[in-house]
Amino acid sequence: MPTDPMTYFAAVVLLGWLVVALELMHGNRQLRRLATLRAPAPTRWPRVSVVFTARNEGATLGTAVPTMLALDYPDLEFILVDDRSEDDSGVILEKFAAVDPRVKVIHVAELPPGWLGKTHGLQCGGEQATGEWILFTDADIHFTPPVLQKAVAYARAQSLDHLAAVPVLQESRDLLAVCVSAFSLLFALFVRPWRVPNPSSHCHGGIGAFNLVRASTYRKMGGHAPLRLRPDDDLKLGKLMKAGGFSEIVLGVDAISVAWYDSVRGLVGGLEKNAFAGADYRIWLVGVGLLLHAVCVFWPLAAVFIATDVARWLWLGAVAVMLGVAADNHRFDGGRAWHGLLFPVGLVVIDYAIVRSMVLTLWRRGIVWRGTHYPLHDLKANKL
Q: Across residues 105-118, what is the average pLDDT?
C-alpha cells in the first residue's frame, strides 16, 4: 500500500472529481429543454406581459426585439423600459410602439435612491404589467416563435410559479467560447439547477434572459423591491419565487439565444459589477473558491509532470475526469465539447475577473453600473 501523503492527496482529489462528475453529468441529464417541453394547451391562454429594461442598447434592440414581437402567443403585451439611455434606445423602442399596439414604452428619466437602474426598471415594468404571467427578459435575447406557448403550458401543468431558461451563449471567437464554457461549469456547480424543483432543497436560481413568473406570486413576494440593490437580481428572483411557490430551470437550446459578450475583455468587464456580489461581498468566500481552483484544477495539471508512480496515474485520472466533465457540461449549453477541454484556460480568465471585481468593488467602496455609483454598505445591506 502506498504511504506517500501526496499519493493520498491525489486520490482524494480524484475522488472529489468523480463525485462532481456523478452529480453534474446525472443532473444535466435531468434538466428539461424549453424547445421540447410538452404539456396540454389550456382552454384559455392566460395573458403574458413581456418586460425588459434597456440602457444604451440601441445596437442590439433592432435585431432582438423583432424576435420577441414574433412570439407565437395569442395574448401578449410588451412593456419596454428605457432606463435613462443616452443613445437612441428610447427612439428605437418608440418606433416599435408606433407600429405594434401591444408595445408600451416607459421612459425612466431619474433613478430614485436605493435602487439599481435595472431592478428599478424591472419593477416599473412589473407594476404596469396586466398579464397573469410576466416574462422578465433582457433587451438582447433572441427567441424562436413557439417557446412562450411551450413555457406557459408547461408552467401551468406543473403548477409552477417560476420557470427560468438558460439561453445559448453565442460566441464568435474560440477563446471567448472557452471562457464561457468555464463560466457555465462554475454556474452549474454553484446553482445546481437540477435540484431547484425539489422543495426540500435550498438550491435556487433564475436567468436574466428568461424568468417567467406567476404575477400573483411575484407581487405577493414584493416584486423587485426585495432585490432593489442586488446586481445578481436574476438569480435572487429565483430564490424569491421559490420561497413563494415552485420553481424550475430548463435549458434553452434551440429556443433562446444571446450574443453575451463580443470579446474576452467584454466578458471580464461585464462580470465586474456582479462577480463579487455573487459571493455576497465576502472576501473569505472568494478566497476559498480560488484555493479550491488551485488545489483541484491547476495543481493536478502541474502534478502530472512532477509526480511519479501511483501518484502520477491518480493525477492523470483527476485531470481526465475534470476535462471530461467540462466537455460534457458545455454540450448542454449548446456549445462545442472541445471548448470544455480547455477548461483550465477559461478558468484563469474567470478567476481573474472575480478577483478584479472584488478589488475594484473594495477600492471604489461600491460598484459603478449604468453610470451610477452604488455604495458597498448599501449593497451589503440588501440581503436575501
A: 94
